[in-house]
Amino acid sequence: MPGRGDRGCPASCRLARERVAENREQVQEPIIRVEDCSVVFGRRANQALEMRRSGKTKAEIERATGSTIGVYGADFEVYPGEIFVIIGLSGSGKSTLLRVINRLIEPTAGKIYLDGDYISEVSAKQLRQIRRKKIGMVFQHFGLLPNRTVLDNISFGLEVQGISASERRKSAEETLDMVGLQGQGEKLITELSGGMKQRVGLARALATKQEILLMDEPFSALDPLIRRDMQNLFLDIQGEVKRTVVFVTHDLDEALTLGHRVAIMKDGEIVQIGTPEQILREPADEYVERFVEDVDYAKVRTAETVMVEPKEVAYEVEGPRVVLRRMRQAGLSTIFVVDDERNLVGVAEAEDLARMVERDEPRLDGAIERNVTTVNGDTPLREVLPHFVGQSGPVAVVGENNRLRGVVVRGALIAGLTTASDLAESGERQLEEVKREESGEENAAPENGRLQREAPDGERI
Ligand SMILES: Nc1ncnc2c1ncn2[C@@H]1O[C@H](COP(=O)(O)OP(=O)(O)O)[C@@H](O)[C@H]1O
Ligand SMILES: [Mg+2]
């Protein structure tokens, strides 16, 4: 189904988000402030906190007091428009932490501020107002009403907010477009596929126009492909509506994909807060290190993160002499050919160009191989890998209209698959694996002539 999310995950948007995250703290007031907040389940709460302060573990405290530390000493701020992700294993306190933000759970100690208001002090009436107008909550199953129509479900949240029928309808229809379900408003929820239901759920959460959305593992029950779709759709929409989102997940890839910043929890405590890049680059302790070491970089990193500017390009209308000369100067044995709008036309080899010169041909045409495989900026490195099988020349990264945005060279790809350069071996291994998969049998047909004509690595930029 042609929804907006199918456009793919905007990696450029991800980079921009990191930059925003880095600058935000200096320029904006936080919209949520959680100050040294703890939640203890059970009766001997103060004793439990006292024991924690003196260094006892969560398990020891549970044995001694029968009380459970849900959250301990959480301290962080969330800024307007930010996607703040809370991640951790099951039981680490994510849901509890999320719920203290809208006072579904009262903290045993510590303070929560929303827009500067200390929310434990607001009256019950004010709290109802806040929950209705300011802060929405989305759960895994979105709580859709099965026997109502799609439009009714979307406008349900607005009804609760006391918005007029005509306005509700208008707003619901707009949101329907946003999630790629235009024209399906009159269908019953029971008539929809799992992925479509999820879109309705997302639409309902967005239609309410609450400034803050608390989302507790909303995509965790979905199968991986639909899940990826929903993540993309969510990012896409968030790019426009710019809500403040606190998003709980136990999936590291999801956290790194969605979060401006990510808080990692262990046994009720936040062990690190940082941008996805910071967390991968500088894990705060051994726990985080172990937690992130399973990340499949090939899945998380995209072509865009490792691409570079091509050293030179050839224009379709140029002659072979002039192009060959530039290639010599830049030390290239292949060159990408573009039209006057820098849209990729093909690739040309120095050898073929030399032949054109010998034949005194005025134009490049005969030397252009037009059948080039390309990738997009957001293609995961895992999918870029196979393009290097049987060739060590760079792979072109193209944008809209096949516009040449950059190239991925083999060395950078391998480096992108690993965290540290001494792990480059593991990148090489992944490439070897793909090669083996691609070639199938041991005695597969020999690779085409390109490989033999190959210049040394990195030369073909
Ligand atoms: N209502 C409750 N009563 C007692 N213990 C609870 C309650 N809710 C959560 N806990 C405990 O608090 C800890 C954190 O739980 P939770 O926030 O649900 O973790 P997560 O969402 O990360 O899986 C766990 O040890 C859990 O057993
Ligand atoms: Mg939970």
Give an overview of the whole structure.
The chain is of the alpha/beta class. It folds into two domains: about 5-295, Rossmann fold; about 305-450, CBS-domain (Roll), CATH 3.10.580.10. Helix content is about 40%, strand content about 20%. It is built from 19 helices and 17 strands. It has helices at about 10-25, 45-55, 60-65, 95-100, 125-135, 150-160, 165-180, 195-205, 225-240, 250-260, 275-280, 285-295, 295-300, 305, 320-330, 350-360, 380-385, 410-415, 425-440, and strands spanning about 30-40, 70-80, 85-90, 110-115, 115-120, 135-140, 210-215, 245-250, 260-265, 270-275, 315, 335-340, 345-350, 370, 375, 395-400, 405-410. The strands form four sheets. Strands 6-7-8-3-9-10 form a six-stranded mixed sheet, sandwiched between helices. Helix 2 (about 45-55) packs antiparallel against helix 3 (about 60-65), helix 6 packs parallel to helix 8 (about 195-205) and helix 7 (about 165-180) packs across helix 8. The radius of gyration is 27 Å and the shape is globular. About 40% of the residues are buried. Residues about 1-15, about 420-425 and about 440-460 have low confidence and may be disordered. The structure holds adenosine-5'-diphosphate (ADP) and magnesium ion.
In a nutshell, what does this entry contain?
With 461 residues, this protein is α/β, with parallel strands linked by helices.
Secondary-structure topology with pairs:
Layout lengths: L10 H17 L4 E10 L3 H9 L4 H8 L2 E11 L4 E6 L5 H8 L7 E6 L2 E2 L5 H11 E4 L11 H11 L4 H14 L15 H14 L4 E5 L7 H18 L2 E6 L2 H7 L2 E6 L2 E6 L1 H6 L4 H8 L3 H4 L2 H4 L6 E3 L4 H11 L3 E5 L5 E6 H9 L9 E2 L4 E3 L4 H4 L10 E4 L5 E5 L1 H7 L7 H16 L22
Parallel strand pairs: 3-8, 3-9, 6-7, 7-8, 11-12, 15-16
Antiparallel strand pairs: 1-2, 1-4, 4-5, 9-10, 12-13, 13-14, 16-17
Helix pairs in contact: 2-3, 6-7, 6-8, 7-8, 8-9, 15-16, 18-19
Bound molecules: adenosine-5'-diphosphate and magnesium ion (MG).
The site of magnesium ion has 2 residues, from helix 4.
